[in-house]
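PROTEIN DESIGN WORKSHEET
SECTION A - STRUCTURE
LENGTH: 394
TOKENS:
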């Protein structure tokens, strides 16, 4: 009577990959495989044909998805992103899916079934990571295109770095999932990765701050290349938006280089996106101006402003100054062209001078009148009175 050595049953959650390989187990596995092939040859043949058809079907769908994405007019539209994502389906994943689907029909032995399941899990985890990466990158490119930065050098550099970061993050998660399925205790690994990530983040804090500031400029779009902005006391035109800094050309000709983080920390005025420009004149009139002229002044100024295709806002009396009565005129010039603003101010200013001259309205200028008093306090003229005429000679 042949005696066989008893072996302990494997744990329920153990994997055939992690169990020790012995001669007895190897012989038993070969015997089971041979018995399975002999007893289920017909089922195996049918399952093989079905698996081949499933595999070819997945590959056909992959090709259709690629052609669909290539035929889209906008490669950053959502249908194109979905097509490109499905086109990234791997051949190994398609093969394992087809085998997994038909393994139950072929009555696969328990050991082989566990191996197929384990390999399918690995392929599925990494395939999902690839799909998620394509969706994230596609949505980022779509957002950049909506922001008007499509095809820019800065976006290309940023997308390269984003692709690396997204790939590392997703495949790190996929690796942890695979190791967990292998029975490895990943708690320490996750903690180590977290501590390592914090250390790297602190060491490269400045770099990441400027990088995220550059991404904020690209996607939030406070300004674009070629636009004129004002920050602090500087007014300049944007020449290049880099990952670390932004280069601008000041109105006086100098090149200004400022870190993206520092630039976004300040208040930015975008002159190019101005809807209209408001201009103001302060008109100083003499105290001798008749009240009826002052009453009619807002109407006169409105007529002048509207003749120049500008928008009249207000014309009001504002102050009693030391030597003038002050009126304030406000008007808007549509658009953001500074030349149009100066042209309108020039024309309106000249028309005001002409109209005031015609109406007899005088502009005031700083004046001072001196009065002289006699010793008794009586006001006297500051100059000698005119001499009386000499009597006529008879």
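SECTION B - SEQUENCE
RESIDUE ASSIGNMENT:
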């Amino acid at each position: 009577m042949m005696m066989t050595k008893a072996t302990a049953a494997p744990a329920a959650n153990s994997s055939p990959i992690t169990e020790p390989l012995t001669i007895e187990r190897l012989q038993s596995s070969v015997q089971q495989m041979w018995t399975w092939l002999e007893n289920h040859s017909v089922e195996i043949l049918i399952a093989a044909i079905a698996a081949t058809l499933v595999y070819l079907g997945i590959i056909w769908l992959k090709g259709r998805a690629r052609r669909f994405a290539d035929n889209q007019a906008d490669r950053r539209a959502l249908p194109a992103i979905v097509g490109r994502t499905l086109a990234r389906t791997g051949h190994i994943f398609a093969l394992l899916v087809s085998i997994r689907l038909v393994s139950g029909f072929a009555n696969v032995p328990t050991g082989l079934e566990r191996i197929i399941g384990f390999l399918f899990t690995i392929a599925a985890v990494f395939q999902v990571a690839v799909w998620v990466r394509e969706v994230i990158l596609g949505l980022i490119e779509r957002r950049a295109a909506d922001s008007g930065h499509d095809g820019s050098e800065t976006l290309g550099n940023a997308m390269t770095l984003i692709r690396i970061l997204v790939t590392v993050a997703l495949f790190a998660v996929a690796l942890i999932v695979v190791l967990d399925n292998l029975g490895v205790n990943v708690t320490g690994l996750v903690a180590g990765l977290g501590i390592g990530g914090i250390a790297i983040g602190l060491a490269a804090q400045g770099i990441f701050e400027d990088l995220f500031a550059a991404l904020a400029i690209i996607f939030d779009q406070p300004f674009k290349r070629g636009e004129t902005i004002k920050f602090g006391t500087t007014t300049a035109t944007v020449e290049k938006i880099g990952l670390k800094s932004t280069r601008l050309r000041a109105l006086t000709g100098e090149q200004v280089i400022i870190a993206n983080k520092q630039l976004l920390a300040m208040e930015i005025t975008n002159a190019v996106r101005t809807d209209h420009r408001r201009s103001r004149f302060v008109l100083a009139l003499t105290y001798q101006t008749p009240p009826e002229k002052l009453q009619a002044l807002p109407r006169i100024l409105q007529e002048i402003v509207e003749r120049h295709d500008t928008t009249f806002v207000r014309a009001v009396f504002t102050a009693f100054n030391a030597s003038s009565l002050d009126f304030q005129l406000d008007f808007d010039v549509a658009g953001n062209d500074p030349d149009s603003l100066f042209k309108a101010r020039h024309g309106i200013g000249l028309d005001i001078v002409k109209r005031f001259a015609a109406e007899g309205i005088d502009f005031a200028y700083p004046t001072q009148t001196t009065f002289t008093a006699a010793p008794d306090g009586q006001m006297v003229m500051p100059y000698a009175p005119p001499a009386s005429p000499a009597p006529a000679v008879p």
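SECTION C - NOTES
The chain has eleven helices and ten strands.
The beta strands are 228-231, 234-241, 245-250, 255-259, 268-270, 276-285, 311-320, 325-334, 372-373, 379-380.
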